[in-house]
Amino acid sequence: MSLFSYRFGVLMCISLMGMPGYIHAQPRTDRLLRQLLFNNVDSLFHHVITHADTYRLQILYVQINRDAHNRPHFHTYAYHADPDAYFYPASTVKLPLACLALEKLNELHIPGVDKYTRMQIDSAYPWQIPEWTDSTSENGYPSIAHFIKKALLVSDNDAYNRLYQFVGQQAIQEKLHARGYRHVQIIRQFMGLTAEQNRYTNPIRFIDADGHVLYRQPALYNPVPVSSGPPIWVGNAYMDREGKRVDHPMDFSMQNRISLQDLLYMLRAILFPQSVPEKARFHLTADDYHFLYQYLSQFPGETNYPRYDADVFYDTYVKFFFRDSSHHHLPPGVRVFNKVGWAYGFLTDASYVADFEHHVEYMLAATLYVNRDGILNDDQYEYEEIGTPFFYRLGQIIYQYELHRKRKHAPDLSRFQIPYEQRDTTDTRPTIKQVDN
User: What pLDDT, in 10s, does the model give residues 291-319?
Assistant: First the structure.
């Protein structure tokens, strides 16, 4: 028996990776995408797509066709897509949090308070952590802009927690649901807090360069109980907070959640706001949009603040559809505007790809679960063995198809051409080699 046959024979003998609670209506699969996927002969890729239930696989591919006036028209193709099928969204929830934080600043209408204004975060309860300074920023202080940069560039967890604390649990839910994003529940920070502790957020103040308080936000509390709904079982067992094994599936009903459809539509609402109903858009300024476009697509190694190590946080570090183990750069002329997440064995990427050299654009999103032993919280997941190779292969299938797909009108992509930062070669500060993500 070959190593490959043995490896995937073992995979097929696991407990279908938490199949209880994963029974839904027939997932949607469209012929074109199915044909594209099954034309690929890579054995690992073929195994995953033919066992989509086992891997909780979902894929959405969006063709974008421009008319004579450069207006985009979208057509979505699905493979095994089901908005009711649970996957743990991990860091992908940082995308809507970035938008909600910018939106809240705009709605405050306080002179001198914007995304670049210095912040100081206090604590009101024992489990909360204050943050008055930030050595990775240019002025030494935190700000909403700096948190968003870190959340998008390398998927920094502390940055997400601070955005969550600024917006507040209640507002997050209400604002996203009001926009029609119904398959969303963002109720947890990435701090190991209890469900009750996550209802509380830190007191925050915005200050000017002289330390004068411009705006003070008190500690917030969500008085609306979070309805967990029925249990969402994943895995066979899990390791609890004390490191002890619990021999039954883990319930994710009180964890964050988002459907792949909602996640990709949020990205579309950011990049193509005029293409979605006004209700689904975020209330952002032109500068907000430009800021998001830059840091959704800028490389960590191009950025001066924070000064990430370009060898550790290489160009495709958070670009799963182009992340090859032997090649860490995007094709010439390509930029990817996206957000990824990985945790508990789940990997997810929602991307807009723009190839300025070949005048190609499309959107692609996928989620996958790789946990051979069925145990959660044991840090034994097949991210590098199965997950990222699958995402890279999927990305290449769609990219190559798009390179050869005929278009009636070539897209004008100039609004996505960003004057990216250039790394200051005279800067002698040590680079950042590790983050909590």
Answer: 999 999 999 999 999 999 999 999 999 99
Radius of gyration of the chain, Cα coordinates, nearest whole angstrom: 22
Residue type, 174: E
324 token code pair: 């090859």
| HSE (side-chain half, CA atoms, 13 Å) at 418 | 23
CA–chain centroid gap for 353, Å, is 15
What are φ and ψ of residue 347, in 5° steps? -125, 135
- Phi/psi of residue 417, each to 5°? -85, 110
**Chain centre to alpha carbon of residue 272:** 18
pLDDT at 153 over 60: yes
Single pTM value for the model: 0.93
Could you read off the pLDDT of 188-224 as tens digits, one per residue?
999 999 999 999 999 999 999 999 999 999 999 999 9
CA 284 vs CA 47, 148, 290, 292, 377: distances in Å: 43, 14, 10, 10, 37
CA angle 193, 154, 287 (to 5 degrees): 100
Tokens 């199915």 found at:
34
* Residue where the block lists tokens 């955005």: 163
Contact 92, 271 (CB under 8 A): no
CA 301 distance to own-chain centroid: 19
Q: Which domains does the chain have, with CATH numbers?
A: 3-416 (3.40.710.10)
Q: Residue 117 is which amino acid?
A: T
pLDDT of residue 327: 83
Q: What's the mean per-residue pLDDT of the chain? A: 94
User: Whose structure tokens read 């799963």?
Assistant: 320
CA–CA dist 55, 25 (Å, integer): 17
pLDDT score for 125 = 97
C-alpha to C-alpha distances, 166 to 106, 239, 296, 404, nearest whole angstrom: 13, 31, 21, 45
With a CB cutoff of 8 Å and minimum separation 6, the contacts of 382 are 345, 370, 371, 372
Q: Which of 346, 349, 437 is nearest to 392 (CA)?
A: 349
